[in-house]
Amino acid sequence: MGNLWAIMFFMMLFTLGLDSQFGTLQGVVQGIIDVKLCPNIRKEIITGHRKLHFHTLRQLCRKYSSTHHR
């Protein structure tokens, strides 16, 4: 029974993390749209651009955050 609770707990943490990521992305995209920084660009294009931007920054942080460089 304890293993079941452990699995459920970590699944809850995983889904909470996903929800936080989607909420953050939605907040950034809606802010860009509300300020009218890109008035003629569709919301889907802005969202894709932001996701690509976040992914690129994440890869750079991962590459340069290691304790040893190759």
Automatic annotation (TrEMBL):
GO cellular component: membrane
Residues that coordinate or bind Na(+): 16, 19-20
Organism from which the protein derives: Caligus rogercresseyi (Sea louse)
Signal sequence annotation: 1-20
Pfam families: SNF (PF00209)
Similarity annotation: Belongs to the sodium:neurotransmitter symporter (SNF) (TC 2.A.22) family.
Record's subcellular location: Membrane
Name of the featured protein: Transporter
An MF annotation (GO) of this entry: symporter activity
Membrane topology of the entry: Multi-pass membrane protein
